[in-house]
Amino acid sequence: MSDNILEMRHITKTFPGVRALSDVNFEVRRGEIHCLVGENGAGKSTLMKVLSGVYPHNDFEGEIIFNGKKVMFGSIRDSEEAGISVIYQELALVPEMTVYENVMLGHEIKRGITVDVQKMIRKTEELLKRVRLSVNPSTKVKDLGIGKQQLVEIAKALSHNVSLLVLDEPTAALNEDDCDNLLDILRLLKTQGVTSIMISHKLKEVLKIAETITVLRDGQTICTLDRQKDKVDEQLLIKHMVGRSIENIYPPRSSKPSDEVVLEVKNWSAYDTKLGRKVLDNVNFHVCKGEVVGLSGLVGSGRTELARSLFGNPDGYVISGDLFFKGKKQRFSHPRHAIRSGLAYATEDRKRNGLILIKSIQENISLANLQGVSKNGIIDEELDKQSALNFVNSLSIKTPGINQLVMNLSGGNQQKVSVAKWLFVSPDLLIFDEPTRGIDVGAKYEIYTIINDLVAKGMSILMISSELPEILGMSDRIYVVANGTITGELDAKSATQEAVMRLATQY
Amino acid sequence: MNELLTVLKKNIREYGMYIALATIMAVFTILSHGVFISSRNIANLLNQTGYIAVLAVGMTLVIVIRHIDLSVGFLSGFLGAVAAISLTQWHWPVWLSILFVLVLGICAGLLTALPIASLGIPAFVASLAGWLIYRGALMLATAATGTIIIPNESFNALGNGYIPDLFASETFLPGLHKTTLLLGAIAIVIFIVGQFADRKRKQQFNFEVLSGGLFAAKLVFISLVLGFITWILAGYNGMSWTIVIMMAVVLIYDFITRRTVIGRHIYAVGGNPEAAELSGISVKNITFAVFGSMGFLSALSGILFTARLKSATPQAGTLFEMDAIAAAYIGGVSAAGGIGSISGSLVGALVYMSLMNGMNLLGTDISLQYIIRGLVLLIAVIFDVMTRKRRA
User: Fold this and answer.
1) How near does any CA of chain A get to the CA of B224, in Å?
2) How far is CA B210 from CA A266, A281, B213, B216, B218, in A?
3) CB proximity list for A473: less than 8 A, separation 6 or greater
4) What does the alpha-carbon distance between residue B82 and residue B76 come to, in Å, rounded to a whole number?
5) pLDDT (tens digit per residue) in B140-187
6) Chain A residues whose beta carbon lies within 8 Å of the beta carbon of residue B263
7) Cβ contact B339–A358 (<8 Å)
8) Distances (CA, A) of B226 to B23, B197, B220, B233
9) Is A285 in contact with A265 (CB distance < 8 Å)?
10) Å from A129 to nearest chain B CA?
11) Topology of domain A4-242, per CATH?
12) A5 touching B, CB under 8 A?
């Protein structure tokens, strides 16, 4: 009989309109290192949020057995008390506080009504030893590298007497040495009796460390592979990760791209001074007139950073390299310069930075091109209304009226407003970041049809997408991004999901 | 009747404010046995409201773009003193003094915006620094002379004077200010014509419009209100220069916010700065523009207040910023940004000053006055949050 520290049974979790997890079973043996892999949106992070109590027990179906007992966590606090710790990609440390303050945060050792600094430092030193980190506990966390910060976070988890450690993409931001070190620490913790679950996109390191691998796809458990019994390699994992057939949800396109190059990017590198690292490294690619170019890559690979660095660089990266747009060498210093030249960018998160939710459809549609509806700085209300109405009709945006606030629209209709806004500036190239994120199948089809219409009229589209079938179904050509650089170019006709995934996991 | 109810429900926030103002005025009128609504007192009330309303208009835009400006009170006090000094000690002509002070105000506003827009310093801190600096500057400016008395009649008219009656007559409507009546009539005509044009345009595009009956009722009601106010003002000295300036500021800013590109940009920046930036709007430039306008209006407010007192005092402008902020919030501006109207802030200022004026008439103890003003502010903001939640 196997000794399972964790069993999650028949977990189903739905969000409004989407089933994120359906009947997922997941078992972890005591003392093993278990990797959880899958595409973006496969449900890995959701599953771990179910486990840790981010989604409380009455928020999903199914049951969780931890250490042989059925548990019902109402919050993260409950799961932490039981001995489960989740470390997210975005670290939860307070940069301005010291290492020991962070490690002991929330369960400070007290002496009377004051905190016992000496005892806390001593306790922290012990914990740091367990993760082989030799830093002074009184150092501020912000002065440590990202790799060391991660170890501090693990030490913090250990201070809660953790028996099951969950790491969500722990290596995404790490360099190779830090990565190897982290894997060593996980092995060390194993000898100390800590079980680990690691979510990762990097299949090479998964194969390096995992004893068991569970593959999720579209919110379902596809298989659990035991390294001792099954022969596992990257090929097999990729096959399981993407192994769905592309349904026929992509409308056929009759137009052909021309040879005329609209956008060409050469040796494009970007350095993020806030993060203190390169986010783009020597990127080269081009887009032709009337072409849909797919930009694929996993979350954090640098796709969005690339788009933003081209589109007026609002993040203030230090950039080197050349950008040729419509045959002219350009370097846009603000989004408005890019827009004026004919380059548009529809953001991946329409709610956060795409639309102004508290304003009307009409105001959102003309926002990026108010010159188009005004004279001498005074808005022609009629013209503004008319153009909004035209878009509402031509894109069939479902709304009672153009003065409806955007926040009252469904996701699909919001996305159409975003499209309308950028069509109204009539760009030559539209960078379309996650065009169909969070919208239903019907609306997706409509967005695809709009994309086809646009390229038929000679517009070019650079489509960033996490969905492999969408990339393959819609693109003429595909570039794959990994680790801030382009790892390959594929022709959409001959490309396969496996080929794209192989390039995307190349680190 | 049903339509009236749905319209009221839909715009409860907007109408709620007018209803509150009308209620407050009615209550004070009754309690003061009609003194509150007398021509003389209403004129006085509007003149008092002038310098706060002007500040509230600017503050509305500052809050709309998610900032705050604490420096405006002492800035207006200081600039008022500068105006007084330029008139009395440098012997500048009135027009030059005013122009100089207005330009100085714009510069001060841009200076406040500099650390906010360029370095991301919180507006609270940056403008608190301004609050201290201008307070010191005001004390310095009045240190040698103490209160500076301004003997210049035409300057003082801005705060105390009334527009001349071009059609003064002993026989036709004696005791009423004819020019004021004429201006009121013109305003009513412009309002009615504008409403008809707007309705026609909306019908052209098949937009929803009020039913004929309700539309007519609205026209009659608002015309009556305008007519009533005009009548009251005409019964005393007519329209004051302060009212004229205040109305001009309100109308111009109302137009800018509702009908111009920069107005849309301001509200977009307030609604979602990141989305605005990615739509090609320079958040930085908008921040400068809004604080520049705030500085300009602070200067105007300082001029009005100084002219009203006919002197610059070392305490001028104390707590004006808080009054302006309170007026803006009573008027429905949202601290979350992107929401708030100029007309709303005008009504907010009127509500706020009516309370003060009314309670003074009744001889309410000053300590109680502050408590009541605080409660009204609280109720207005709670009402705002509740009605907004229900709509979302």
Assistant:
1) 29
2) 59, 60, 8, 9, 9
3) A246, A249, A250, A448
4) 10
5) 999 988 899 999 999 999 988 888 888 877 777 777 888 888 889 999
6) 379
7) yes
8) 17, 19, 10, 11
9) yes
10) 40
11) Rossmann fold (3.40.50)
12) no
Tokens of A501: 């995934």
Looking at residue A17, its pLDDT comes to 57
The ipTM value here is: 0.84
Report chain B's terminal Cα–Cα distance, integer Å: 25
Taking a C-beta distance cutoff of 8 angstroms, is the pair A192, A30 a contact? no
B254 pLDDT band (50/70/90 cuts)? very high
CB of B339 within 8 Å of a chain A CB? The answer is yes
Window B:189-208, CB contacts with A under 8 Å: 201, 205, 207-208
User: In which residue ranges of chain A is CATH 3.40.50.300 found?
Assistant: 4-242, 248-342+427-507
Q: Do A374 and B261 touch (CB under 8 A)?
A: yes
Task: State the helix-helix crossing angle for B320-330 and B72-88, rounded to 10 degrees.
Answer: 130
Query: Over 80: is that where the pLDDT of B33 sits?
Result: yes
Q: Which of A249, A431, A468 is nearest to A342 (CA)?
A: A431
Residue with tokens 């988890």: A157
Which residues on chain A are in Cβ contact (under 8 Å) with B275? 347, 352-356
The highest-level CATH class for domain A248-342+427-507 is alpha beta
Contacts of A347 in chain B (CB under 8 A): 275, 278
Considering only CB atoms, which chain B residues are within 8 Å of A311? 278
* Backbone φ, ψ for residue A213 (5° rounding): -130, 130
Assigned token pair, A93: 């440390």
Token look-up 């760009």 returns: A427
Look at B259 and A356 and tell me if their CB atoms are within 8 Å: no
Alpha-carbon gap, residue B87 to A15, rounded angstroms: 69
> Which of A333, A353, A415, A425 to mutate to test binding with chain B, by most B CBs within 10 Å of its CB?
A353
The secondary structure of residue A96, as a DSSP letter, is T
CA distance A338 to chain B (A): 8
The residues that bridge with A344 in the sheet, in sequence order, are: A430
CA–CA gap between residue A85 and residue A87 (Å, rounded): 7
Query: Does the beta carbon of A355 lie under 8 angstroms from any beta carbon of chain B?
Result: yes
